[in-house]
Amino acid sequence: MTDRTLAAEAFEQEGEILDAIEKWLERDVRPHVMRLEHADEYPVEMVEQMKELGLFGATISTDYGGLGLPAGTYAKIVEKIAETWMSLSGIFNSHLIMAACVERDGTEAQKALYLPRFATGEIRGGLALTEPDAGTDLQGIKLRAVRDGDHYVINGTKTWISNGIHGSCFALLVKTDPSATPPHKGMSCFVAEKGPGFTVSKKLEKLGYKGIDSAELIFQDYRIGADKLIGGVEGRGLQTALGGLELGRINVAARGCGLASAALNDAVSYSQIRKTFGKPICEHQAIQLKLGEMATRLQAARLLTYDAARAYDKGERCDMEAGMAKYFASEAAVENALESMRIHGGYGYSKEYHVERYYSDAPLMCIGEGTNELQRIIIARQLIKRNPI
Question: How many other CB atoms are found less than 10 A from the CB of residue 227?
């Protein structure tokens, strides 16, 4: 079979998957978004439908029952879903980062035990990194894991954890050696299932990103088997988490594209309906300038996102590419959302239209999976490293 034939088959498969996603969104998601968003209600039925579509196993290898999709196809799925309701993409993104941590760095026993159950959505969860005093500076975490025979005892708090309430298992970043220098050598990552000593203290209220649960997690003498240490070796936790975040940043970039696209599409439609001074506002040069900038910004964000996905699929280090995509696409989402709101005028500020939701959701993309300030530092450092003199 030739490379051209394989490429054609992959393209056809991607088209079929995206078509199925689009039909699901039109039939089962779009009609309910406003109600669920305004109620900040967890979309239980949609989560079950996502299980059936295989989204919880989207990037998990077929060897473990997943779809084994390349990051490029995954990014297109995320963009399409985020264009309709961004919150849904977060429910399976955090879950798939957890799965990527296990698949890339876990022991064979851990992979065999967890990945098939992650792929079906039987076990759902996410990534537990952030703490009250440690977000961007992950080396500053304080959650402590102390070895006790064949177990570890964990104490501390995690916060802003996606799927914290409805998820049951998390890739949990801890300190196993607080005295290590540099600090990352004393960090480890566990596959932590909820149980005695692992509780959810509260749901965190947010400006946007409704529906998906963000929570604070409390660990009080939580005992976990040493066999749950990802990779079976202490001191590799930060590398495991950062490896998973490469996929997460591609997801965030794709979400940014989805929001930027939704904001543009709504603006294009509204500008042809709304009239001022005897003609549709799309005929006014001031509006045309906004639409032209929004469309160009979206296309540039997409190209950066697909470039990062290609690097990820090749198995290359792609923190620079993923950082560029995440940074640019999230800022594009913010700018397009604001411009769409301005084009809609007073209606853009109303909860009767989707535009106010785009405007509330978009800023999260500039913060989540590493702030955009951090992304620019990563880009610069990699730029220097790749171009020594």
Answer: 14
